[in-house]
């Protein structure tokens, strides 16, 4: 699902889980390598409007105190964003920058990737050969949370139990992006990043914290200990 293309169908009547799903999807696209679509959404102000609408519909506290102006920049260019993205994030693969791979923020990377893959496989998801990123990359992890949150929305809409999707979200956040995004944010700030990437990181961190608190209120605290073949209990 292309989150940017889907935004026009989201309104304040959408369920909280659907709003969360779209937020994950949109933020996942924002943390990918900059392309023409992303740059156009920044230049036109569509990105700011989309994120602001979603946050206000879900929880106004997500944006409270955040300067969202970097999300709308009529002068943004694909080349400039690509250079900044590479400086901040791509060098992280060599241990010199701010990696977007969880296993390089809080490893060992092979174990982190193996557990992430167990989560994906449990829901019948596999990484295709043309997938550009590793299992522990933020775009891959956010796409998975996008899938789980939308699954929660669909199950709830049908009057069925959404516990499976909620438990998976809880444990995945707690053991993957919820653990390492704060580490990434701490490394990013002293690098004096383009404000766009800083506000996206802050917004993502707030969303993950909000969702983990919600899911733990429903199902108790998540265990940080991997549990064999199944990534989480309760199903």
Short summary:
The protein is mostly helical. The protein has 11 helices and no strands. It has a single domain (3-219), classed as Orthogonal Bundle (TorD-like), CATH 1.10.3480.
Give descriptors for this structure.
235 residues, globular, disordered N terminus, chaperone, TorD-like, 11 helices, 60% helix
Task: Report on this structure.
- Helix content is 60%, strand content 0%.
- The protein is built from eleven helices and no strands.
- The protein is globular and about 45 Å long.
- The model is unreliable at 1-12 (pLDDT under 50).
- Pfam families: Nitrate_red_del.
CATH homology superfamily: TorD-like
Q: How many discrete structural domains?
A: 1
Number of strands: 0
Q: Given the structure, what is the number of helices?
A: 11
Question: How large is the share of residues in beta strands?
Answer: under 5%
Uncertain runs: 1-12
CATH architecture annotation name? Orthogonal Bundle
Give the SSE string. Answer: HHHHHHHHHHH
């Amino acid at each position: 699902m292309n989150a940017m293309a889907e935004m026009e169908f989201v309104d304040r009547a959408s369920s909280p889980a659907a709003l969360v799903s779209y937020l994950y999807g949109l933020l996942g696209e924002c943390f990918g390598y900059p392309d023409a679509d992303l740059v156009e959404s920044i230049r036109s102000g569509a990105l700011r409007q989309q994120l602001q609408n979603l946050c206000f519909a879900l929880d106004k506290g997500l944006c409270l105190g955040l300067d969202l102006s970097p999300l709308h920049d009529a002068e943004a260019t694909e080349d400039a964003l690509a250079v900044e993205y590479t400086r901040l994030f791509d060098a992280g693969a060599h241990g010199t920058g701010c990696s977007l791979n969880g296993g390089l923020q809080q490893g060992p990377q092979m174990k982190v990737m193996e557990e992430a893959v167990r989560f994906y496989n449990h829901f019948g998801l596999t990484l295709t050969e043309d997938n550009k990123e590793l299992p522990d990359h933020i775009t891959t992890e956010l796409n998975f949370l996008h899938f789980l949150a939308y699954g929660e929305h669909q199950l709830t809409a049908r009057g069925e139990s959404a516990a499976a999707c909620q438990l998976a979200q809880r444990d995945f956040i707690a053991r993957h992006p919820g653990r390492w995004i704060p580490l990434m944010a701490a490394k990013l700030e002293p690098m004096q990043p383009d404000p766009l990437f800083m506000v996206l990181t802050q917004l993502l961190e707030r969303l993950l914290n909000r969702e983990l608190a919600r899911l733990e209120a429903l199902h108790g605290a998540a265990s940080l200990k991997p549990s064999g073949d199944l990534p989480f209990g309760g199903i």
